[in-house]
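To the team - zinc ion complex, inputs and output below.
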Amino acid sequence: MFIDSHCHIDFPELSDRLPEILRKMAENQVSHALCVAVTMPEFPRVLALAEAHPNIYASVGVHPDYEDTEEPDVATLVRLAAHPRIVAIGETGLDYYRLSGDLDWQRQRFRTHIRASRESRKPLIIHTRSASEDTLRIMREEGAGTTDGGVAGVMHCFTESLQVAEAAIEMGFYISFSGIVTFKSARELQDVARAVPLERMLIETDSPYLAPVPMRGKTNEPGFVRHVAEFLADLKGVPLQTIAEITSHNFRTLFGVPH
Ligand SMILES: [Zn+2]
Ligand SMILES: [Zn+2]
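Output:
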C-alpha cells in the first residue's frame, strides 16, 4: 500500500469529486493521504476532511506563496496542532521563485512555523524553491530537525541539489519526491533520487498540480502517487513493493501515526 504524503484535496479542483478520489485511492492501493493546509481561513476545511475520513490526515500552516493572508502566530499553530488528526506543521518555507521584492515577511513566517514545530513536537512540511541557502540557514538558526533537540520533517516536492538533500537528511529530514521526478526533463532530479537512501524517502502528488507521467497534463489526485512509486522503483532498481513498504513505513515514523 502507498501513502500520498502531500496533497491538497480541499482545493476546488478536487473537493467536488471527493467520493471518486477516495475510490481511486483504494483502486490504486493508496491507503492514506496527508491533506496539507495553506492558509488559516482554509484550515477548517482541511481539518474537516481529516475528521470525516480515517485515512486522511491533516496539517496546519500558512504557505509562503500567500502574501496577503492572516498571519499565524506560534501559540495559535501550537493550539491547532494539538488536535489528534493534525500530524504536522506546514506547509511552510521559502519561495523566491513565485514572489520577489522584500520577502522578510516570508522568512519571519517560516521562523514562526519552526518554533511552533519545536513547541508542539510535530514535524515540519517544508516547501523551498529558489531559496535553498536561506531555507537551510533558517532551519539551522531556529533548530529545525533532530540535531538541536527539535523534531524532523520533510522537504516536500523536492527539486533541489543532492547537497541540499544531504544537508536536510543530516538534520533528520526526509526527502519527498513528486510527479516532477517522472518528467523527461528532470534528469538532475532523477540523479538526486538515485542517491537519496530509501530510508529517507517519501512520495507525494502535491495534487491537484504536477500529475506524474503517464498522467501528465491531467488534474493530479492522490491515487496517482502510485506512478511516482513505479518510476522510483525502476530508477532505483528495486521491486515496487519495496518502495511501497519503505515509504509508508517512513511516513508513519515521521508523522507518528500507527503502523
Ligand atoms: Zn509546496
Ligand atoms: Zn503543497
